[in-house]
Amino acid sequence: MKKWLAAVVLLSLCLVPASLAHGEPLKVVATTTIIADVAQNVGGDNVQVTALIPAEADVHAFEPSPADVARVAEADLVLVNGAGLEAFLGDLVENVAEVELSVVSTGIEVLAGGEHDHGHEEEAHSDEPATTPDPMATAEAKDEHGAEDEHEHAAGEPVGVYGVDAECGELLAHHDDEEHSGEEHSEEEGHDHDHEHGPCDPHFWTDPNNVLIWVDNIAEIFATADPDHADDYRANAAAYKEQLTALDAEVTALLADIPEDRRVIVTNHEFLAYFAHHYGFEVVGVVIPGGTTLAEPDPQALAELVEEINEEGVQAIFAEVSDPGILAQVVATEAGRDIAVVTLYSDSLGAPGGEAGTYLDYVRFNA
């Protein structure tokens, strides 16, 4: 009887996260500071959340260190945005046995990314790396035969629900393209141009309504891992969702005085589409193409962007804290008008306690 009881206890300990087995908070690693902040609000005292990518950093340029690999290996849960944002995860996960990634963005309506119609997208994007299908977006494109018109979406256009019917870039991008040449070929058959994130824009968090979905997903992820505190997670989630709803109303009121014909903007790279879609703006162009800061802009595309800026009467180009915005300033100068280059936060929060130290402050500052 004692041996049987001991076996049951041992089995039960193996079925719960290691931290809980020792009476400690869940050890949670989030890829970005934005996800980490939201997760901490949902988890409260029952979780300990750290972010892989530091504050004010560029997620597209991030390279994990051996210490990051160790943190992931020791974590009970790893929270990721998905939709191809975390291009570094493939290499990292290869070094961590049995790590399970929890995607927080499932259920969000995805906007297309990477295509702004300035007439030369093929030349501007031809050297960008190809991607393979995202395992979290399991459905094929709506046209099973791959008809060309079914796969083409203008940037900012809804393409489906993530994890249900939206086809996105791979969740775990690998840096060694040769290992995945077969997948790359199949992706090219479905799309005219390949982009860092496939046809999807992964910058979901710039619309607080998408973060409402994050909150529900994170609450359920925590409740599944730690059912003893499931009610706490769901109560924290409900309280935080009230703050997000109030934040959305606050931003809507703040932006209300901007005339409709002035709601045209240009960004350093494609990161404000969800904000623009929800609050009634139009992103008429980007300085760096394709949804990633690592792409190389084409001189002819930049010249066309300057022309577009003048035709649309654009008043500001929005650069990022994580990028010095040198190209953005060049474009503003070439336009020959008084165009502001304004620095915003994009993929990461600011320093703790600063102007964008929390997600709520991040949205307020950018708005």
Structure description:
Residues 1-14, 116-151 and 173-197 have low confidence and may be disordered. The strands form 3 sheets. Strands 2-1-3-4 form a 4-stranded parallel beta sheet, with helices on both faces. The chain starts with a helix and ends with a helix. The chain has 14 helices and 10 strands. The chain is α/β, with parallel strands linked by helices and 367 residues long.
Query: What's the N-to-C terminus distance?
Result: 64 Å
Please give the largest β-sheet.
Answer: 4 strands, parallel
Counted beta strands: 10
Low-confidence stretches: 1-14, 116-151, 173-197
Shape: globular
Query: Which band does the percent of strand residues land in?
Result: 5-15%
DSSP helical segment count: 14
Q: Round the Cα radius of gyration to an integer and report it.
A: 21 Å
Structural class: alpha/beta
Helix residue percentage: 25-40%
Mean pLDDT: 79
Write a short abstract of this structure:
It is built from 14 helices and ten strands. With 367 residues, it is of the alpha/beta class.
Core attributes:
4-stranded parallel β-sheet, single chain, alpha/beta, 10 strands, 367 residues
